[in-house]
Amino acid sequence: MHNPLLSSGLIYIKLKGGIFKMKITFNDSITRAEEFVKTCNGYDSPIDLIVDNHYIVDAKSAMGVYAYAAGHTLEVEMTSHNPNELNRFIDEMREKYEVKRN
User: Packing angle between helix 29-40 and helix 83-97, nearest 10 degrees?
Assistant: First the structure.
């Protein structure tokens, strides 16, 4: 289900190295950022937010996500060598954040 308080851009998947990336913007920063952090904490693999192509923040850290949630388009990156976890994360991101495949 698409969440109207979030918008997201295109995802792209690099098959070598098991990396999933997408862009996301939080329109209602605190509430949606909190939900996003909770979702990310459900995975064992590292998930990072890349802010303005410069800063890297742990997506499982509420304080880190809150610091950049408002007014920034964030790139979400999960690195996993577990294809089941990677596919589950991709499916969950698509379901919650209207991710479109490139």
Answer: 160
